[in-house]
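Today's session is about reading a structure prediction critically. Students often jump straight to the picture, but the first step is always the sequence itself: look for stretches that repeat, for charged clusters, for runs of hydrophobic residues. Only then move on to the predicted structure, which in these notes is written as discrete structure tokens rather than atom positions. Here is the chain we will use throughout the hour.
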Amino acid sequence: MLNINLEGKRAFVAGIGDDQGFGWAIAKALAEAGAEIIVGTWTPLLKIFTMSYTNGKFDGSRTLSDGQLMEFAKIYPLDAMFDTLEDVPEEIRENKRYKDVKGYTISEVAAAVQEEFGSIDILVHSLGNAPEVKKPLLETSRQGYLAALSASSYSFVSLLKYFGPMMNRGGSTLSLTYLASERAVPGYGGGMSSAKAALESDTRTLAFEAGRKWEVRVNTISAGPYRSRAARAINPGYIDRMIEYTKRGAPLPEELHGPEVGNSAAFLLSDLASAITGVTLYVDKGMHAMGVGPEILEG
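Below is the predicted structure for this chain, in token form.
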């Protein structure tokens, strides 16, 4: 039987803040395959996420197929907007959610992981944010647009820059994108569509650069709409409508589930995909293949 086997592999998953998003689903799939999981969570969420994890709030979601609980080797604070401590504005440093937390910039986290673990085999970028995501692109400010690109696409470039040197040969990286990178999706605003387009373009360029420099593969998954806690918090009505629209229009008329993305990620990050790099893999029930919806056949 052909199985995904990640035993002896170590993964750093950036962007897990609860047990509802794709980052969690990917981490769980990697754990099911035997990988050791290290997590980077957004600095303001560190305390509540760590407490929820240690107090058993996530135990139901942590349960693996063998009945054991998924374990995180360590949870690091991570604010992927900042590469070094010098990049952090004074008002952020003195903010009560940051003031007592040390080593949360990308370079600092990478250095800490290397010191404590030595190396990693897998790097997952499950990060995305746009402060003006509810605004149409024409109403998005320059500051909001650049913030979306910084948090959602350049953050992956920076993560690979700092984590790449500690990745074992044959390692693999993965990010998450969305169809708005190449199709107009009304309501997906604030520069997020531009950030996802940049992320996909960077995936191809980084596949070449990281492949030649470290023999590391770089891929991205274009996932369908998903009812994560973050998506519901931003615009609950919008994500519900997007899911229903996809169910009506996709070749597979059903809702996307987290484990489907997690399993696809585990494949791409495993040696079974050793010849695959620079790819955008659609995990969206086939919605990307549609030009118009099936309603054109009605009436």
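Discussion point for the tutorial: The chain has one domain: 10-286.
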